[in-house]
Amino acid sequence: MVVRHTLGGGRGKGIVCAWAHSIGIGIYALVTLLGLAVVLKKAPLIFNGIAILGALYLAWMGIQALRSNGGMQAKLAAGEATDTLTAARDGIAISLFNPKIMLFFLALFSQFVMVADSLTGQALIVLTPLVVDGLWYTLIALLLSHSSVLPKLREKAGLIDKLSGVVLILLAIRVVYTL
Question: Cα(6)–Cα(84) distance, rounded to whole angstroms?
Answer without folding.
Answer: 11
